[in-house]
Amino acid sequence: FPEFPGHGNEVALDYTIAADASRIVSLEKDTVSQTLQAIPATVHVGGPATLTWRSKGANSCSASGAWTGTLATEGSQTVTLTVAGNHDFTLNCQKGSDSWVTKLRVVVEP
Predict the structure, then answer these.
(1) Which of 26, 30, 61, 78 keeps 20 to 30 A from 52, CA to CA?
(2) CA nearest to 28, candidates 54, 59, 52, 63
(3) Bridge partners of residue 21, in order along the sequence
(4) Could you read off the pLDDT of 4-20 as tens digits, one per residue?
(5) How many Cβ atoms sit within 10 Å of the Cβ of residue 19?
(6) Taking the mean position of all CA atoms in its chain, how far away is CA 50?
(7) Residues in a beta bridge with 104
(8) Hey, what's the torsion of the CAs at 98, 53, 71, 51, to 10 degrees?
């Protein structure tokens, strides 16, 4: 991941890796880096997707959107998606009064 020096810089990347059909969303701002990945990024109804995340520099994280609850600053969770459509998974992490949001979409096909 490239480094961009300076205060207040923010870099966000959203990309797909064809080899394992995963999607990764990555964010870097100041001393915090945050990554959220889904493998695979497209599933059929009833199929599982594994979400993996890491927020370096954060003190706490939570999930919203298609998943909810308190999360560790890094980990993984397998979800089973039972409804066709777009499902947005949001990772919200904080350090003091600063917060970072990373959103990733998993597509569920019939």
Answers:
(1) 30
(2) 54
(3) none
(4) 444 455 555 555 555 55
(5) 5
(6) 11
(7) 89
(8) 140
62-93 pLDDT, tens digit each: 999 999 999 999 999 999 999 999 999 999 99
* Structure confidence at residue 7 (pLDDT): 43
Beta strands in the chain (DSSP E): 10-17, 22-29, 32-39, 42-44, 48-56, 60-65, 69-71, 74-80, 85-95, 98-109
How far apart are the C-alpha atoms of 17 and 44, rounded to whole Å?
A: 18
Q: What Å distances lie between residue 40 and 20, 21, 28, 108, CA to CA? A: 7, 5, 23, 10
Summarised one tens digit per residue, pLDDT across range 23-67 is 888 888 777 889 999 999 999 999 999 999 999 999 999 999 999
Q: If we measure between CA atoms, which residue out of 44, 43, 26 comes closest to residue 35?
A: 26
3-state secondary structure of 51: strand
